[in-house]
Write a structure and sequence with these properties.
It is built from 4 helices and no strands. By secondary structure, it is mainly alpha-helical. The chain has a domain of about 90 residues.
């Protein structure tokens, strides 16, 4: 799940950096600012995962292992974002707005399709209940007619 969110983050980051690079006339300044921001983000995450004050017992060891996994995952995500940012700055011919719209449509569809399925099921249930009560009324009328 983390990698899905990381992929979405990297795609959005790629498009935003690309749109920013198209509108900027100094591409090196844009890249320097982007790289510094990514380095600062990684430094902040690393500082938050400080393991110096943890006890040497089993709980501290497990927490250290989890922190190292989170740190490695964050490092990979930041380095991938750097590559994506550099590609976005070097390739202004890519239609970044189209990619963002397609990503937005994809995200909306991931929510809309299950909602559509649920609404179809509820609709079928309502229609079935309606037909059930209609048949009950018809059967009641036939019983009354047959008894007379």
């Amino acid at each position: 799940m983390v990698f899905k969110y990381a992929t979405i983050f990297i795609i959005i980051f790629f498009c935003i950096v690309g749109i920013g690079a198209i509108n900027s006339y100094n591409k090196e300044l844009t890249w320097d600012t982007t790289e510094k921001a990514l380095d600062n983000a990684y430094r902040n995450v690393t500082l938050a995962l400080n393991t110096k004050n943890l006890s040497p017992n089993i709980d501290g060891t497990i927490i250290r292992i989890v922190y190292k996994i989170v740190d490695a995952t964050t490092y990979v995500i930041i380095e991938t974002a750097k590559v994506a940012g550099k590609l976005a700055i070097e390739n202004p011919q890519i239609n970044f707005k189209l990619i963002l719209w397609l990503l937005l449509i994809g995200l909306i569809l991931t929510v809309a399709l299950p909602l559509l399925k649920i609404s179809v099921i509820i609709g079928i249930l309502i229609i079935d209940i309606y037909h059930h009560f209609k048949e009950k009324k018809i059967l009641q009328k036939l019983r009354e007619k047959h008894e007379k």
